[in-house]
Amino acid sequence: MIEDHTLLAESLEIALSRDGYDVRRLSLPEIGGSLATLKSAALRINARIVLLDLDLGRFGDATPLISPLARAGANVVVVTASDERGRWGECARAGARKVISKSRPMQEILSVVRRLAQGLTVMPPEELESLLEAWRRERMLTEDMRRRLEMLTAREKQVLGHLLEGHTVRDIARSSVVSEATVRTQVKSILSKLEVSSQLAAVGMARHARWQPPG
Known about the structure:
single chain; mainly alpha; 10 helices
């Protein structure tokens, strides 16, 4: 089990242990470590079934863990608070056997584990295809966002990076030693190229596309 929410992890561990499963919870260090070290530790356990939280706090998005675990023979079940179907589809494409919302009853998670332990199917073909279609739509949207973001000049990317960090136009002007009017002109150009109407929307697009400012 790879889960950073202690209450849920302990509850699942107790419930699965009562069902007779040998449960091992991967410890997430408070200091140090990386997603790569988590992957190595998880592969060493050689688990038959892995319950994986999709968002692992400071370790970030756990999607890159799915494919290596699946290739190693693990049945990966993603348990997530995210309701983004595109992300669910990305998990399914990477090899997850099932994606379950944390809002679902615990018995549903336990039922999936039991079925996997018995070698049974846990995701009908129509559900898999629906998730993959959501992933394809999301990928097209993200690629379009990244195309627009790449249209920005080097300076505009710097300004957008400041906006991502929560800086105001006045903050950016002071740190760049330029006038506020100059920064407003740069922001206006950013909004035009991204085809959005507000700084908030521009920041939202950058985050959605997982865009990182240069340097």
